[in-house]
Design goal:
This protein is α/β, with parallel strands linked by helices. The protein is built from eleven helices and 22 strands. Strands 13, 14, 15, 16, 17, 18, 19 and 20 form an eight-stranded mixed sheet that branches.
Length: about 475
């Protein structure tokens, strides 16, 4: 019998690899799935959960139930008979867990069910029918859990700006929902996503669906929520910390640095004073994100604005004459802000005023970086005779300070880095300097900024934006 089985397996493999006269092999793909809905239990905590009750209640419908976790729940959870466990963390002695999802989920539809949900006979089937009868781009169906109805939200992704923006959704035009929900979709759609079971599952699905233009239909009928004892304070603290960690990891994987919520609040997931900036060393004046079709991450722009405000405030308080230079002046004239793809801020200063600023004077005297009371790091640039102020020791987003001095009515300097806009200019542009809105505050700028910019960048510089490396 063993020999016959081996011969049969080899014949099957030969059949699947054989090509006929037309060059096309016969189909040996697994079936697309059997009718029905598999319940996936993914969003739960090991330390306090209703996993046994939720699994038992849905298995009694009966429908297939699969508990999905990185590792086996600990303390161990007694699962009802017929409820299987899918472990997502790769192990050297097992095949990749999601390499062949059809081995785990054989039905055509799946429902992501929150922990503590109780079934309603026939509701999963109604959700499935609503999905299949739905018109247009509907790929997800949501039903509330508990007595609080779901809030329909619009979700707009601005990939170039690393931003997810939520707003009130119109009936029938949901891209996300607010509230606890069961989510149903086709099995093949779920496992075609790059992050099919990443937590928090609803957010992961909504964002990936929005990238693909999928619509979401909300069902009015609700699943009951189980009556559960109150979560302990320690359990609540652990759950909140884990949720925050998971959300940050998810947003990193999805390439989102900022969420703008429907009520206007913001969540940030990028760099801070305590971390490195979001991009590495810039080569050929082209940051890596530009090559990926994106602009400066919003957290980096926020840090640049904060640094620019701090530096200009310190210079003004010390009586140092400064002005917006180069691309920073270009951004101020065009937008009143930093150019969306810029990665630093440039200020010109009078060289003779350097000693007026205590931080610049300390750097010039010691030749070493100096950290000020607010954590900004002032230093002499290694590339030449100019200064640099970093957001922090860890985060090297910075403002460059270029010391100019007058010579025969022309402003010049001692370090030229070969940038096309790096040219001398008449001092008359600085007599007087004028205030100009920039990055959320008022900075000083050359008078007749347009003529100044066209001297540096050429005619039409204001009206014709281009990247630092136009070849990109």
């Amino acid at each position: 019998a063993a020999l016959a089985g081996a011969i049969g397996l080899n014949l099957l493999l030969l059949y699947c690899t054989w090509r006929g006269p037309g060059g096309s092999p016969p189909s040996c793909r697994p079936p697309r799935g059997v009718p029905g809905v598999t319940v996936l239990l993914r969003d739960f905590e090991d330390f306090e959960n209703d996993l046994t009750g939720t699994a038992r209640s849905f298995a009694s419908l009966p429908v297939p139930v699969l508990v999905v976790a990185e590792t086996a729940p600990y303390p161990p959870v007694p699962l009802p008979a017929g409820v299987n466990l899918l472990l997502l963390r790769p192990a050297a002695d097992r095949p990749p867990p999601l390499a062949r999802p059809e081995l785990h989920v054989r039905t055509r539809h799946v429902a992501l069910v929150p922990d503590g949900t109780r079934p309603v006979p026939g509701l999963l089937e109604r959700m499935r029918d609503a999905l299949e009868e739905g018109a247009g781009d509907t790929r997800l169906v949501a039903a509330p859990v508990g007595s609080v109805p779901l809030r329909c939200l619009e979700l707009r992704l601005e990939a170039r700006a690393w931003t997810a923006r939520y707003g009130p959704g119109a009936p029938g035009l949901c891209r996300a929902v607010e509230g606890t929900a069961v989510l149903l979709l086709r099995t093949r759609d779920l496992f075609a996503l790059p992050f099919p079971l990443t937590r928090p599952v609803p957010t992961a699905l909504f964002v990936q669906a929005a990238f693909r233009g999928w619509g979401l239909r909300v069902m009015p009928a609700a699943f009951p929520a189980a009556r559960r004892p109150p979560v302990s304070p320690h359990g609540r603290w652990k759950a909140e910390n884990l949720a925050e960690t998971r959300r940050h990891r998810l947003m990193r994987d999805l390439g989102i640095k900022r969420e703008v919520l429907a009520d206007g609040r913001e969540r940030w997931y990028g760099c801070s004073k305590e971390t490195a900036r979001c991009f590495g060393t810039v080569h050929a004046r082209t940051p890596q994100y530009l090559l990926a079709g994106r602009w400066t991450p919003p957290c980096c722009l926020r840090a640049l604005r904060e640094t620019a405000r701090h530096v200009t405030g310190a210079l003004e308080a010390a009586g140092v004459r400064y002005w917006l230079e180069g691309g920073s002046l270009l951004g101020a004239v065009r937008l009143g802000d930093i150019i969306p793809w810029d990665y630093d801020v440039d200020l010109g200063i009078y060289r003779e005023d350097v000693g007026k600023c205590r931080w610049l004077a300390a750097v010039a005297a010691a030749g070493e970086p100096v950290e000020d009371a607010e954590g900004f790091l002032w230093e002499k640039a290694a590339e030449g005779d100019f200064y640099r102020v970093h957001y922090s020791r860890s985060n090297r987003l910075h403002v460059d300070l270029w010391p100019f001095y007058p010579r025969g009515g022309v402003m010049t300097k001692d370090t030229w880095l070969g940038h096309p806009q790096d040219v001398e200019f008449p001092e008359s542009f600085l007599r007087p300097r004028v205030p100009m809105p920039f990055a959320g505050f008022t900075a000083m700028a050359p008078n007749n900024a347009r003529a100044f910019l066209e001297l540096k960048f050429g005619p039409g510089a204001v009206e014709n934006p281009e990247y630092p490396n136009p070849a990109v």
